[in-house]
Amino acid sequence: MNNSTTDTDHGIDKKKFKKDRWPCSPSRVLHIRQIPNDVTEAEVISLGLPFGKVTNLLLLKGKSQAFLEMASEEAAVAMVNYYSAATPLLHSQPVYIQYSNHRELKTDNLPNQARAQAALQAVNGLQSGSLAITNAFAAEHGFLPGQGSVLRIIVENLFYPVTLEGLYQIFSKFGSVMKIVTFTKNNQFQALLQYADSMNAYHAKMALDGQSIYTACCTLRIDFSKLSSLNVKYNNDKSRDFTRLDLPFGDSQPPMEPSTAAAFGTQNVIFPSYVGAAGFAPAMDFAQGLSVPSVPGAVGSLAITTSSAFGQITMPGATGGPGNSVLLVSNLNSEVITPHGLFILFGVYGDVHRVKIMFKKKENALVQMADASQAQLAISHLNGQRLYGKVLHATLSKYHTVQLPREGQEDQGLTKDYSNSPLHRFKKPGSKNFQNIFPPSATLHLSNIPPSVTVDDLKNLFASTGSTVKAFRFFQKDCKMAFIQLGSVEEAVHALIELHNHDLGENHHLRISFSKSSV
User: Fold this and answer.
1) Degrees, nearest 5: CA angle 27-32-34
2) Contacts of 392 (CB under 8 A, 6+ apart)
3) Sheet holding 352-357: strands in order across?
4) What is the pLDDT of residue 251?
């Protein structure tokens, strides 16, 4: 049986993909599903570059699918293994990668392959030298040697102002941006930017290093920082920590505008235009900026376009931009999930105002957070988390509000308004809850425990949810609080959903959050 692709057979193009069918054996050809229809060849190729050489590409935009051929099966295995734990995003949408039944791609006779081949040629040039990665290392470890999640960015030829907000929009295209610090050193505008994931940092460096924000000026020089994490003390126009909503503005900096404070509350970042600057066109041509000249769809093309005469930039297809507070949550277990369950889980990372489980597609839901910062925080911590036996996917929605059902409209209780819920964790400014936001973990922090409740009472309570209690410890100085360690992170997620606000008697309701400590 010939597994290669031909123009007549073209089984790739005609077969309908069955979501639950996984090819039995690894292949160096990978099948990528649910890609946005405005994605470029270069963006698809960039998914494979950290793991080795990409040798071919077939992009089927009409079917929202692509096939990527790696140089070796080892590189493909490393790529699948990595992305099975960290779902990749293209244009803020999760895409799904698995092995193809095809052992190689033969695209010589297929139309519209010129762009793909041009992008591959550009990539192969970039992969030489410092960007080369050994397939063996990537296959063994699934990450890059000596490279962390913090980038150092220098902006050369600074003829137009570059802001923290602008950097956020540009770099968030490649993953969740956690922290940014900007400063001037040696008369150069510089920034340190921390991603949630080192692979995001690698993609951004590879795509943006050497590119210009504006035509022929504001050129980005990007390298990996020696810092493993950034310490941000203030949220203002010079620095920002997207995981800490409670940080002060600082004495030396004026408060940000309300729209900026709400995670840069608009989808468009405005760079003020200096009309008549010598040698540069006013309003700048963003369509030319941030792309590799003369190579169609080359690596790093952000396809940024001007939306007005004042240098306003927008990301095509990014209707769920940084200013959006509504999340699309998909791949849910429709038999178990409830609006209340999503309210409790996402409420760990922000105040949930509304939840809507889709009436006809109950594996999908919309979750509206109080603001865009909380939405980004929820994505960074919950996207890829296992929930009721399925891997949850969270991304920004194209909607900016969750509509309540009209009176008399059939809803089956799938839409809930929690705007005035007493269970919001972040209503009080300066609350300690802001300082205790951690990723899902097998260890839970319990609080508000009445004196009459014993160790066995709590162990039995958690065991009743199906959890395996591995360890338990009351705080020495405060028996109102305790740590409990369960059998897995997924067990802890389920227990938190089920038992947060559980009535323990004596007018005490149990409070649960994830802990960074172990028992």
Assistant:
1) 160
2) 329, 330, 331, 332, 382, 383, 384, 385, 386
3) 393-396, 326-330, 365-369, 352-357, 415-417
4) 53
Nearest to 285 by CA among 306, 307, 310, 270: 306
Domain coordinates of the chain in residue numbers? 11-141, 150-314, 326-417, 438-514
Into which CATH architecture does domain 11-141 fall?
Answer: 2-Layer Sandwich (3.30)
Tracing tokens 């109950």 back to the chain, one arrives at: 362
Give kind and range of the element (H or E) at residue 152.
strand 150-156
Q: What are the tens digits of pLDDT across the range 319-338? A: 334 468 999 999 999 999 99
The position carrying tokens 């270069």 is 42
CA distance 195 to 375: 16
The superfamily in CATH containing domain 326-417 is: RRM (RNA recognition motif) domain (3.30.70.330)
* CB 210, CB 165: distance < 8 Å: no
Cβ atoms of 220 and 212 within 8 Å: the answer is: yes
Neighbours of 422 (CB within 10 A): 8
Instruction: Return left, alpha or beta for 146; rule: phi > 0 is left, psi -120 to 50 is alpha, else beta.
Output: left
Residue 303 pLDDT exceeds 50:
no
Which pLDDT belongs to residue 20?
38
Q: Residue 30 and residue 35: Cα distance in Å, rounded?
A: 13
Contact 371, 262 (CB under 8 A): yes
User: What is the DSSP track for 179-222?
Assistant: EEEEEEETTEEEEEEEESSHHHHHHHHHHHTT-EEETTEEEEEE
Q: Class of the 150-314 domain?
A: alpha beta
Amino acid identity, residue 420?
Answer: N
**Mean per-residue pLDDT, 431-436:** 74
Q: How far apart are alpha carbons 361 and 96 in whole angstroms? A: 19
Percentage of the chain surpassing pLDDT 90? 34
> pTM (2 decimals)?
0.46
* CA–CA distances in Å: residue 28 to residues 97, 296, 422, 496: 12, 25, 52, 40
Using CA atoms, how far residue 27 sits from 60, 148, 409, 463, 492, in Å, is 19, 29, 49, 43, 35
Q: What sign results for the dihedral spanned by CA atoms 279, 284, 290, 291?
A: negative
Here the tokens at position 59 are 């992009």
The label of the residue with tokens 């296992």 reads: 386
| 34-85 pLDDT per residue, tens | 998 888 888 888 788 767 788 999 998 889 999 999 988 888 888 887 777 6
Q: What is the pLDDT of residue 270?
A: 27
Sign of CA dihedral 130, 133, 134, 140: positive
* CATH topology classification for 438-514: Alpha-Beta Plaits (3.30.70)
Q: Partners of 444 in the beta sheet? A: 484, 514
How many CA within 13 A on the CB side of residue 310? Answer: 5
Helix then strand count (H, E) for the chain reads 12, 28
Domains 11-141 and 150-314 share a fold: yes
